[in-house]
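Appendix B. One record, verbatim.
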Amino acid sequence: MTTLVVAMVGRKGGSGKTTTVFNLAGALVTDGARVLLVDTDPQGSLSRILMGVAPTEGLGVRLLAPARGVADLIVPSGIAGVDLLPGNATMREARSQLAGNPAASVRLRALLRALGGYDAILIDTPPELDFPSASAVLAADLCLLPTDLSQQSLDALADTICFVEEQAPLGGGRLAGIVPTDVRARERFDRDALAAMEVAYEGLIRMPVPYSPRVKESIAACQPVVTYDPKSQAAAAYHALATVVRAYTVAPVGDR
C-alpha cells in the first residue's frame, strides 16, 4: 500500500494549518481511509486538541534518537480511523540540537516510512520556517499551504512558497496547493483578496474554506466538521480538499 504524506506548512500562526489537518483527516476517513496525524509543533496544539493534555513524550525525543522509531508513541486520536503521533516541547530541543544538520532534516522522513498501515499521513507544522517545518516538507510527498486572507498571512504565504521550493532539490514534497481559510464571501475584502490570489497563484488555489463558527465548535467537541455538521459549506470544502488529496493517491509521487 502506498502511503501519501501531506505536510501543512505556513509561516504565520492562526492561518489554519492545525484546523486543516484535523478536518482533512475527518474527510478522508469518511471514505474509508486510515490516517495518521503527526504533530511537529513544539506547542503541540494538535496533540492538545486530541488528547486534552500535553503528551509526556513527543516526536522530538525520537528525532534526537531515531533508532528507536516512533511506532510506540502513536496513540488513538479519539476519531475513528485516525491515529496521532504527538508532539510537545521536546521539539524545541530537537530544533536546537539538530538545526543546520542536513542529515537530521531527513530523519522524520525515515521514521514515517518505517510505519505501515496508513493510507495518508498528515503533518502539522509550527508557525516558523525552520527545522521542524523543513523536516515535514522533506518527509512529504505533497505540501498544502493553508492561509487566511489577512495581509500578514498573504505576506507570509509568499515566504512559505519560497521555503517549500527551496526544499525541492533536497527531495521535498511538491507544492500541491494553497488552501484559503475562513473566507467570508460576503465581504468585499475577502472577495478581492481571493480574486488576487487566483491571479497570482494560478492553478494552485484549492477549495476555499468558508468562515463558519461550526468549525471552531467542532474542534472544541473534538469532532471534525464533516461529522459535526455534515451539511455545512465548510464540510463540503473539506470533502473537496480530500478529493484533491485522494487524486494523488491514485498516481503517487515517486520515492525520493
